[in-house]
Amino acid sequence: MPEKRLDLTTSVMNTIRHNKVDMRPHIYFVVVSLLTGAGLAGLVAVTTFLASLMFFGFRMQRPFSYLAFGLRGVRPFLVTMPWIPLGLMVVGLVGGWVLLRRYDFSYQKSLTALFLGLTAFVLTLGAIFQVTGLNEKLAQKGHLNLMRSRISVGEDWVAGEVTGVGDKQLTLVTFREEVVSVVWDEHTHLPSGGDFLIGDKVQAVGSWEGNVFKARGLNKGPANYSFYRGGDHFRSIRRTSYTA
Amino acid sequence: MLHMENVENLGDEELVELVCFVNKELYTEVVRRYQTKLFRYANYLVQNEAKAADVVQEAFIKAYINLRGFDTKRKFSSWIYRITHNEALNTIKRYKKELLVGESWWFQALPGKEKSAEEDFEALELKETLTLHLNKLAVKYKAPLAMFYLEDKSYREISHILRIPISTVGVRIKRGKERLKTICQKKD
User: Which of residues 142-181 of B touch A (CB under 8 A)?
Assistant: First the structure.
């Protein structure tokens, strides 16, 4: 059977002529291309910033350390995880990936590789910002209020810096400058041992008995662990409050 | 003044430049050059002549609207096939139920490259198998198989049209053939 011939020339040209279909001007494509580029660059910048905020949250709150306490640590872990930057970062990554797919080169790569590449790029850059202490530096200049977003006291957990050590008793100052008394006994789970020094950053799970926190689990950060990398600004605030 | 003979000798990309900047009416020549090929390809996908004709008409209109966005350093045929492919996919989504049963008379007498008698026979056999069972394959396999075996497109061109890596084109053609084989075996 012969191949069927189709003549669309008249109908296509008539539609173009009578419906006044016109070509989009060249400038339209230039503008779309510029906007896509700017959108992608902006999205990557914002997502990188969110990644650095997320890493900042990890360093300040150490949510994963609560998991050392087992089931008791799940709630503080969930509360202290930086969910908002994490969620927004994922949205940003998906948005960036969608924009990247509009580029001609993108289809030569696998979509998974493209997404993983973008994620690795954003996380690496975010980690670099975090290590250099950019967040804290911005906070010092008043552009960010990172400390306010930190949570350090919950119904069954507390975190802070040791300012006083007694017999099975610690005095902590939390991120929000609250002074808390923590006691423990022989049944308390101590993953990092019971040797605490002034300046240690500790996390505890347990229960409140009046104004005293009775720890069922008590853990301290690594020896060289530091909350701050952006300068002495926060330290000076904290020192002032201890004296007061 | 451009004569029709001169226009016919122009490459696609040169012709597109003329349509964009000299005479819009020359788009007739673009339509004339591609309508049969695109109709055939659209029909492979939608398996319905009337819908395939609509797909191609819509693809030509969309291509015309966006013609100044086409980079003439690239291949026009890949670009127009890409538009047609997307349009066909939209039609398949829109008329899913209606397009389940298809006609396939137009698979006969398809153009082919010059080959030896044996190769010709094998190619014809494969084309016939494709003709019979193409509509049973998912679009994912149907599109690269149709382009490679029935439209004589290279892997690179298929990669540009479907916007997938060349390696994926190879994998889909291989898997498509395997599935086709399974379908044929079940029939036997």
Answer: 159, 163-166, 168
pLDDT at B113 over 80: no
Say what the ipTM of the complex is.
0.70
- Beta carbons of B110 and A2 less than 8 Å apart: no
Query: Residues 72-101, chain B: which have Cβ within 8 Å of A?
Result: none
> How much is the pTM?
0.66
Q: Looking at the DSSP assignment, which residues form a beta bridge with residue A166?
A: A169
E-strand ranges in B29-170 read: none
Q: In the structure encoding, which two tokens stand for residue A122, read together?
A: 């954003």
Cβ separation of B66 and A23 shorter than 8 Å?
yes
Give the tens place of pLDDT for each residue, A32-85.
Answer: 989 989 999 999 999 998 898 888 888 878 889 889 888 888 988 998 898 999
Smallest Cβ–Cβ distance between A1 and the set B39, B60, B105 belongs to: B105
Sequence-distant (≥ 6) Cβ neighbours of residue B99 within 8 angstroms: B46, B47, B48, B51, B91, B92
Q: Are A19 and B61 in contact (CB under 8 A)?
A: no
What residues contact residue A143 under an 8 Å CB cut-off, 6+ apart?
none
| Contact with chain A for residue B106, Cβ under 8 A | yes
Rounded distance, CA A126 to CA A118, Å?
Answer: 12
Neighbours of A197 (CB within 10 A): 9
Asked if residue A163 lies in contact with residue A172, where contact means CB atoms within 8 angstroms, the answer is yes
Find where tokens 């350390």 sit. A65
Q: What is the pLDDT of residues B37-55, one digit of tens each?
A: 999 999 888 888 899 999 9
Beta strands in B32-98 (DSSP E): none
Whether B188 and chain A come into contact, CB under 8 Å, resolves to: no
| Residue B102, both tokens | 């298809």
User: How distant is the Cα of B178 from the closest Cα of chain A, in angstroms?
Assistant: 23
Q: Please name every residue paired with A220 in a beta bridge, in sequence order, or none if there are none.
A: A202
Please name the residues in contact with A72: beta carbons below 8 A apart, sequence gap of 6 or more. Answer: A156, A205, A206, A216, A217
**Does A14 touch chain B if contact means CB atoms closer than 8 Å?**
no
List, in order, residues 6 or more apart from A180 with CB less than 8 Å away.
A153, A158, A160, A171, A172, A173, A174, A211, A213
Angstrom CA distances, B163 to A201, A241, B82, B153, B169, stand at: 53, 61, 8, 14, 10
pLDDT at residue B72 is higher than 70: yes
